[in-house]
Amino acid sequence: MRVPLDASQNSLVLPLLGLLVERPSHAYGLASQLRERYGHPTATRSTVTSLLKSLERAGSVASQQPERVGKRPPRTVYELTEAGMADFRRKVEAGLGEGRAASVDFVMAVAYAGVLSADHAASLLESRAERLDRELAGLRDRPDGVAEAHMLEAAYWRTIVTAEADWVRTLASRIRSHDIDWPGAGPGGQGEDRR
Asked: Is the pTM of this model over 0.70?
């Protein structure tokens, strides 16, 4: 995996911030949680530490004094700041609304959609379904004279986009009908549950 020069663009940032929404943690614990929960085999402790330091410089996270537990080396615990929470919400909104179909950005945004109000999350998902419908309408059929075996990817992509549009529409409907126990809304209509 190529690491972007701008650390905030790294695909690990959204799940890292999401884990910190749940509770403060140290780099080793976060790297372990990323591998366990999301299967990011490249989420090494050193990568996570570098990202946390970059996020701290940006004001998204704050570090606490390193603590020693037992005979383990001292570990610096990081927690999300208010600015980090605001940035996290923006990243979730962008992933839900703008993330490419079948992308990791969308999957990670869905994982933490509960930080948004139910109405806002449902609206973003409904807009996404409409965008996916437009993408489907723009997909070309197999050109005349081209063997199906040479255009299998077109049928595959049509199936993926159709399935995602259907799933997103169903999720938005379930959120609106209160079929999903959604976190309470806090000030500004944002979800306040820290997951």
From this structure: yes
